[in-house]
Amino acid sequence: MKCTEFLSMLDEVIDESFAAETRERIERHIHKCGHCEVVVNTTKQTIQIFQCHEIVEFPTSLRDRLHQNIMDRCAQVKRSTS
Ligand SMILES: [Zn+2]
């Protein structure tokens, strides 16, 4: 398997949706090709980060307002206790 062939199958590699007989060829290529191994690992990590972010990511404006709200409350607490 060549890198171009491997990379053209990257989606399937990430999803592990390739055919069973293809797995051996993919694993053999990753084993001897550090470049493609890095590509797979990096892509998987990026997808994981993206998936995590999707759950906790606020729209910027909402996050700013939330942040401002927290800062205001902190300022109020400081004022009332001192
Ligand atoms: Zn390769």
Short description:
The protein has 82 residues and is mostly helical.
Count the strands? 0
For the largest beta-sheet, the strand count, sense and barrel status come to: none
Report helical residue fraction: over 70%
Portion in strands: under 5%
In DSSP terms (H or I, runs of 4 or more residues), the helix count works out at 5
Tell me the structural class. Answer: mainly alpha
**Bound ligand species:** zinc ion
Taking Cα atoms only, what radius of gyration do you get, to the nearest Å? 23 Å
What's the pLDDT, averaged over the residues? 83
Q: Can you describe what's shown?
A:
The model has no long low-confidence stretch (mean pLDDT 83). This protein has one domain (3-81). It has helices at residues 3-8, 10-15, 20-32, 34-56, 60-81. Helix 3 packs across helix 4 (34-56). The protein has 82 residues and is mainly alpha-helical. Residues 3, 6, 29, 33, 35-36 line the site of zinc ion.
